[in-house]
């Protein structure tokens, strides 16, 4: 970049850190003609974030806002034929932000009729479908546009067991017991009246389960529902598992499909409908000495229950994945400070790196019709006059382990010596610092560098993106080993001037 071009770029200020936009969700329509995506923008007047859902017509290159009040956590879904988009709106009261997230969900959720909304591509109407007063947790379409499966938790529980919530002496104990009462879900089949979508939907109970449901996925070939169990209180990782419910025999108990003490998420069905893919992250164990790993991708055979690890040759952290129409998949994987796109032509083939721009590919979706790819990308090399950064490496001289991190120089001072140093240490400890631009409360290294600091973000032992051993080395030395990793980096910077 020439010096004249650099001078015309605006300087990063604190204002940008309070006005940034993120893209939490993107998804192609089944026919590949539309792209659905979400933007999240700070809304200072409401002391909240504005979650906007957009639909983009690819052929006409035209975008339309569906709603400015999208639900914060339940993602929208295309119907099987692509003519409808099912979504929830945010119904939490504005004054609910002063309580913990789970208590806010239960105690402050409006005791009113709830609706799932259907957006019509043919009329651009957003139609409310009444579903009762229970709090929605997750939903999925089956193989028809006229019904849905919905997981909820019952608000009446909170009303019947809320008398002692203000007892100061036993506040923590009561709140704990109260939270445990909430941890149950009901799964319903919602049948929509195709002649009048405004009529209340017919709701029939499928199953009550003694845990909260995180995700739902319908399996057409076996007429089953796959569900993930979750809990806001991580007391035991055995709470987080995958179950199946046979819709042809709803009297039988849910069948537990995993038993690995890991956090499972991102359930997606293979193109032939015989396997379910999911992401898994291990965070300790009550049965084993140590099993912390980076996020991995697995495939489960729904016929015999066999679980196979995909992308076994990849030694980094898997962020996200998407299936293509040929049965292969794309993976977003972090190695070091970069998150790049990889592909597997089949579930058993080798992994292929698709070298792209330096930076971070944060989300990916693939069209079933033409294999178009849409992704969210971020890097420090944007239109602002940002600090220039590079990957910086050094050795821990105790065990000769190579360590690296990101080094941010003030604008116009790349590779300049004798700068004041700020060491910005990431948390986690698994959340390694990566090459992306996200000017929020947590990732403020570019802002500090803009003010004249040389900022080092060290990816010490325990950081993701460097293999499972790099994480497991942290065991029994959570302070001393990362501390030595970081201090040797500072020593190396001093020697380098």
TrEMBL record:
Checking SUPFAM superfamilies in the record gives:
alpha/beta-Hydrolases, DPP6 N-terminal domain-like
An example molecular function term from Gene Ontology annotations? serine-type endopeptidase activity
Q: Which InterPro entries match?
A: 6-blade_b-propeller_TolB-like, AB_hydrolase_fold
Q: Does the keyword DNA repair apply?
A: no
Query: Which of UniProt's keywords are assigned here?
Result: Hydrolase
Can you say what this protein is called?
Uncharacterized protein
Species assigned in the record = Adineta steineri
Q: What is the lineage of its organism?
A: Eukaryota, Metazoa, Spiralia, Gnathifera, Rotifera
């Amino acid at each position: 970049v020439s010096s004249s071009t650099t001078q015309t770029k605006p300087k990063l200020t604190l204002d940008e850190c309070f006005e940034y936009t993120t893209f939490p969700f993107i998804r192609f329509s089944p026919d590949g003609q539309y792209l659905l995506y979400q933007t999240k923008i700070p809304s200072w007047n409401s002391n909240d974030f504005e979650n906007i859902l957009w639909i983009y017509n690819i052929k006409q290159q035209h975008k339309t806002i569906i709603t400015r009040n999208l639900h914060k956590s339940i993602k929208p879904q295309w119907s099987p034929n692509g003519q409808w988009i099912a979504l929830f709106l945010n119904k939490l009261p504005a004054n609910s932000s002063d309580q913990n997230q789970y208590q806010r969900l239960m105690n402050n959720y409006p005791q009113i009729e709830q609706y799932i909304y259907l957006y019509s591509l043919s009329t651009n109407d957003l139609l409310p479908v009444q579903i009762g007063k229970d709090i929605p947790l997750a939903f999925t379409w089956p193989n028809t546009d006229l019904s849905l499966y919905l997981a909820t938790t019952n608000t009446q529980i909170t009303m019947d067991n809320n008398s002692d919530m203000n007892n100061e002496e036993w506040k923590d104990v009561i709140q704990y017991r109260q939270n445990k009462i909430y941890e149950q879900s009901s799964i319903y089949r919602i049948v929509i009246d195709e002649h009048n979508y405004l009529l209340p939907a017919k709701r029939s109970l499928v199953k009550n389960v003694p845990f909260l449901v995180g995700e739902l996925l319908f399996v057409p070939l076996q007429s089953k529902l796959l569900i993930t169990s979750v809990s806001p209180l991580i007391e035991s990782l055995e709470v987080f598992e995958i179950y199946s419910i046979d819709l042809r025999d709803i009297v039988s108990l849910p069948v537990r499909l995993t038993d690995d003490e890991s956090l499972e998420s991102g359930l997606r069905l293979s193109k032939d409908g015989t396997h379910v893919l999911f992401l898994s992250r291990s965070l300790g164990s009550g049965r084993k000495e140590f099993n912390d790993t980076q996020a991995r991708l697995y495939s489960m055979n729904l016929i015999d229950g066999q679980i196979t690890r995909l992308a076994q040759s990849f030694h980094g952290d898997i962020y996200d994945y998407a299936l293509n129409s040929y049965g292969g998949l794309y993976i977003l994987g972090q190695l070091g400070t970069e998150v790049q796109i990889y592909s597997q032509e089949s579930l058993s083939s080798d992994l292929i790196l698709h070298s792209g721009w330096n930076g971070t590919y944060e989300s990916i979706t693939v069209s079933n019709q033409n294999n178009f790819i849409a992704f969210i990308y971020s890097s420090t090399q944007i239109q602002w006059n940002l600090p220039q950064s590079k990957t910086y490496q050094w050795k821990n001289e105790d065990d000769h382990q190579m360590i690296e991190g990101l080094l941010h120089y003030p604008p116009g001072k790349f590779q300049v010596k004798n700068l004041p140093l700020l060491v910005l240490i990431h948390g986690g400890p698994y959340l390694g610092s990566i090459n992306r631009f996200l000017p929020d409360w947590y990732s403020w290294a570019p802002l500090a560098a803009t003010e004249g600091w040389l900022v080092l973000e060290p990816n010490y032992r325990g950081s993701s993106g460097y293999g499972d051993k790099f994480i497991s080395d942290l065991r029994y030395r959570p302070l001393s080993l990362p501390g030595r990793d970081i201090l040797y980096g500072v020593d190396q910077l001093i020697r380098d001037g």
